[in-house]
């Protein structure tokens, strides 16, 4: 009798839009589907069904998500929608009535159920198809670690809490177990993300959980300390300057975690911060940054800002420019205010004209570029640790990042070296020879080393 042909695994494609938090959601979805025997395809043609994980943070992101859904329907036909825009099912159905199912953000079980309904598959549970640490969309040597969902703040320009709900922190031992698994799987840099990292654990009253031979609190400091013992780079994103953040700076000075803080400040004018209802807006941020620098001189401060928020005056805007210069913000992103549907700031009076927003955005970029150039030039002649990211075949250089650079959003180091001289995920010492803004160029120092 002929052997029974093995059942072909149905294949899923995924389009992941939006921020690293959404990327982690996509990773969880594909990890779960893979564990149930579904195969993955990198293109529409090879997929039996496509999941589109959408972003709904700004109106431009919504439009991009609707376009992506349309493209997936045109190219493949069988489409399940999830993510932040999933909250607006009517909007999606109005443009794309043929989508098979719509679920909201971090509703993993509903997405899986929708896939199973429209592409049924029975899997032998004894066959394990998922590597330790789960499936990831980032390169093997770095990973995002999401420590909580949702947000307790109510910034007036933001609709995230209405999409993702209030803060729900993961237990500390669950976060640490995942982090340890990532390190065992070869991760050299962990990027801690959430909507409000420094508020971690507030919702569970900093609950303790058992980790190895000790108990650990679900608290920003405790988490930073434990992660700092894993022997890899640990980078903190989305931190608000609450007073307890000061406690983490000595861990940076001691080399436990990276001397890097991503603090989305959004503005510097106290009046506007109040109108924005920003968390920790009353803290004396400039003084705090100066104090942090006195404890940890190497600290890099990344931030994002909004120009043209309703009622922003020329004076407010100049306060912002003075602030980024005086605080020496090392990495700054700037966005023009978007009047997002559903955001309370829509109701504020005195909206700023588009041409004024544009003009302020350009002036901000000029100051930002000067700061970047000065910062880059100050690196020339220095020898720095670099985590190697990828070989760029066109220019025949390696690309990597210093401790001051998060992937995708900050600067890069172009390293002149042969292809065989190193690999992705190596740590090397690089002597910086030239700089253009945040792009540095250098060659491997003669005392180069590879860590872990
Ligand atoms: S902190 Fe503010 S901007 Fe960030 S997710 Fe929460 S409400 Fe939105």
Shape: globular
**Helical proportion?**
25-40%
Determine the mean pLDDT: 91
CATH-defined superfamily of the largest domain? tm_1862 like domain
**Termini gap:** 53 Å
Tally of strands: 20
Helical run tally: 12
Cα radius of gyration in angstroms = 23 Å
Describe this structure in words.
The structure is a single chain. The chain has three domains: 11-118, Methylthiotransferase, N-terminal domain (Rossmann fold); 142-377, tm_1862 like domain (pyruvate-formate lyase- activating enzyme, Alpha-Beta Horseshoe); 380-444, Beta Barrel (OB fold (Dihydrolipoamide Acetyltransferase, E2P)). It is of the alpha/beta class. Residues 1-5 have low confidence and may be disordered. The protein is 31% helix and 22% strand. 44% of the residues are buried. The longest helix has 26 residues, at 354-379. A five-stranded parallel beta sheet has the order 2-1-3-4-5, sandwiched between helices. The radius of gyration is 23 Å and the shape is globular. The protein binds iron/sulfur cluster. The site of iron/sulfur cluster (SF4) has 10 residues, from α5.
């Amino acid at each position: 009798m002929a052997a029974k042909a093995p059942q072909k695994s149905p294949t899923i494609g995924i389009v992941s839009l939006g921020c690293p938090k959404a990327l982690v959601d996509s990773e969880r979805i594909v990890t779960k589907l893979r564990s149930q025997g579904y195969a993955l395809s990198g293109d529409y043609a090879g997929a039996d069904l496509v999941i589109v994980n959408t972003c709904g943070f700004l109106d431009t992101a919504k439009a991009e998500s609707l376009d992506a859904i349309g493209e997936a329907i045109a190219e493949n036909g069988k489409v399940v929608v999830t993510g932040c825009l999933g909250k607006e099912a009517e909007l999606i159905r109005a443009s794309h009535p043929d989508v098979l199912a719509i679920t909201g953000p971090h509703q993993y079980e509903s997405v899986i159920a929708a896939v199973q309904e429209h592409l049924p598959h029975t899997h032998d549970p004894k066959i394990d198809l998922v590597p330790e640490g789960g499936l990831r969309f980032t390169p093997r040597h770095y990973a995002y670690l999401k420590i909580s969902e949702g947000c307790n703040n109510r910034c007036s320009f933001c609709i995230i809490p209405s999409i993702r709900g209030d803060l729900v922190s993961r237990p500390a031992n669950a976060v640490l177990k995942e982090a340890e698994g990532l390190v065992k799987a070869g991760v050299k840099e962990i990027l801690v993300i959430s909507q409000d990292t420094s508020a971690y654990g507030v919702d569970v009253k900093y609950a303790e959980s058992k980790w190895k031979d000790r108990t650990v609190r679900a608290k920003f400091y405790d988490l930073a300390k434990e992660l700092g013992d894993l022997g890899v780079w640990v980078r903190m994103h989305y931190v608000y300057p609450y007073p307890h953040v000061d406690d983490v700076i000595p861990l940076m000075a001691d080399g436990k975690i990276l001397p890097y803080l991503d603090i989305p400040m959004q503005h510097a004018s106290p009046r506007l911060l109040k109108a924005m209802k920003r968390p920790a807006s009353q803290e004396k941020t400039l003084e705090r940054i100066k104090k942090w620098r006195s404890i940890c001189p190497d600290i890099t401060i990344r931030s994002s800002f909004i120009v043209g928020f309703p009622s922003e005056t020329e004076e407010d805007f100049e306060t912002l420019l003075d602030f980024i210069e005086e605080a020496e913000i090392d990495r700054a992103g700037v966005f023009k205010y978007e009047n997002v549907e559903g955001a309370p700031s829509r109701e504020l009076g005195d909206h700023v004209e588009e041409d004024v927003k544009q003009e302020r955005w350009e002036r901000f970029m000029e100051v930002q570029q000067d700061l970047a150039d000065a910062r880059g030039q100050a690196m020339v002649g220095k020898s720095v640790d670099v985590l190697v990211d990828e070989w760029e075949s066109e220019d025949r250089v390696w690309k990597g990042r210093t401790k001051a650079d998060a992937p995708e959003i900050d600067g890069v180091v172009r390293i002149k070296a042969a292809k065989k001289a190193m690999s992705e995920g190596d740590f090397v010492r690089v002597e910086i020879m030239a700089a253009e803004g945040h792009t540095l160029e250098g060659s491997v120092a003669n005392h180069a080393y590879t860590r872990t």
